[in-house]
Amino acid sequence: MNPSATVLVTGFEPFNGYNVNPAQLIAESLNGQTINNASIVGLSVPVEWNESISVVTQAVEDVKPVAVLSIGLAPNTRFIRVEKIGLNLRCMSSDNGKRYVFSKVEPDGPSLLVTDIPTHYIAKEIRKSGIPARQSFFAGTYICNNLFMGF
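^ that's the sequence the OP posted. Answer follows.
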């Protein structure tokens, strides 16, 4: 990577009753760091359907990164999930979680997006550090997936 390369790392703000989101803390702690000659821009992202996409889109326009790494919190997951696929689907609960409403993230978009990033290899490298990690094929139907599809 050339010395002027920038990598954008995003982490979501707290949600669903959590006071802290480790994803946000990671992004904020990396902000301003240089790793392997890449300048890191860490960004907190709101947990809101449209605003999350707008914030990241604006950051990409501003800093012109060579890569974007988005980090999220999946409660009750005991390993890092490196997402391979985003679905053009969002799920919003209504009636305090008694009923769910599904819609498309991108009305005219494809049913799914598959990243060309080597997610299996990345998960394998993370495991070499002693951290549990797996390639994942489902980013869920909440804000992480929304950002994967909408950005």
